[in-house]
Amino acid sequence: MPRLDFVAGYRVVRLLGRGGMADVYEVKHVQLGLRRAMKVFTAEGERSDFLKSRFLAEGRLLARLDHPRLVKVHDCGVDEESGRPYLMMDLVLGADGEPHTLASLHKERKVTEEKLLGWYADLAEALAYIHSAGIVHRDVKLSNILIDADGHAVLSDFGVSRVSDGRLRSELSIEATMVTDAATAGKIVLGTANYLAPEVRRGDAATAASDLYALGVTLFRLLTGVWYEPDTKALGLLDGYDPAWRGIFAALLADDPQNRSLPPVSRASRRKWLWAIAVLVVVLAMPLAVWFMLARTSGKNVPVSDRSAEDLFFYPR
């Protein structure tokens, strides 16, 4: 691929990542100073024309969507010098100015349970939004989720998404299905093998419910370090974690897609649990406080060994 220096008024700053169908660069507008991510189509071969149509369809789709937990496309075109189609997108970088995905954070062991609860809330919002618009992502996974400077999760890469609304599909010129890397029982299916819902593995069409299952697999991997497999005792690995996870995974990983849902869970679930313990301690300590107060008002001497406890309640001397 020819070297890229300037595209559509943007100066190429650096390469952020390479994929099977496209490369992603950080770019800066020469006049306005705006910083974007530029996704450049790179696939070649006999299927390149077909893949190019899917690439541009992804751009048209993301340009129609507007949600803080989705990567938005602002412009698209074809670079005159290289002849490569490109998408100008939101630049999503971490607090350190570097790109981070859940895959990279997992590899670097930078995932905490508290952060994961927050990311679940972010992704639940994103999926609820696209599903309400009649869109199935079909490839929710670690490497397709970015983390921004504020620590929020952002869903990206709609290259194999499915649009169920016929009118929208026609407007976006999506008339074909792109085949990716997963195959089951002789049938080619969309998605990445480890994340496929049971019904998709059997050859059924992907739905919003299969996106929820993929989200469950993603979160389970981050929390426990292992891949979730149905018909196992994998949920037994949740002992010792925040109790909220049992409800989340039971809803996301249900074998029957009709039983899957996105349960609302506070990002401060663990914090609320600790607050409950603190309140319980205070309640249990109240009888002791009352005893000290009665002892002082009745003129009784408080044992010297209890002076530190008395001081804790700040009684006037």
Describe this structure in words.
α3 packs antiparallel against α6. The chain has helices at 48-64, 102-107, 113-132, 166-171, 198-201, 208-224, 244-252, 269-297, 307-312; strands at residues 6-7, 10-18, 22-29, 35-41, 73-78, 85-89, 135-136, 145-147, 153-155, 162-163, 182-184, 187-189. It has a 6-stranded antiparallel β-sheet, covered by helices on one side. It has a two-stranded antiparallel sheet with strand order 7-10. It has a two-stranded antiparallel sheet with strand order 8-9. It is globular. It has 317 residues and is α+β, with helices and mostly antiparallel strands. It folds into 3 domains: 1-91, Phosphorylase Kinase, domain 1 (2-Layer Sandwich); 93-267, Transferase(Phosphotransferase) domain 1 (Transferase(Phosphotransferase), domain 1, Orthogonal Bundle); 275-312, no CATH class. The chain has 9 helices and 12 strands. The longest helix has 29 residues, at 269-297.
Record keyword descriptors for this entry.
globular, alpha+beta, Transferase(Phosphotransferase), domain 1, 9 helices, two-stranded antiparallel sheet, Phosphorylase Kinase, domain 1, disordered C terminus
Layout of strands and helices, then pairs:
Blueprint: E1 6-7, E2 10-18, E3 22-29, E4 35-41, H1 48-64, E5 73-78, E6 85-89, H2 102-107, H3 113-132, E7 135-136, E8 145-147, E9 153-155, E10 162-163, H4 166-171, E11 182-184, E12 187-189, H5 198-201, H6 208-224, H7 244-252, H8 269-297, H9 307-312
Antiparallel strand pairs: 1-2, 2-3, 3-4, 4-6, 5-6, 7-10, 8-9, 11-12
Helix pairs in contact: 3-6
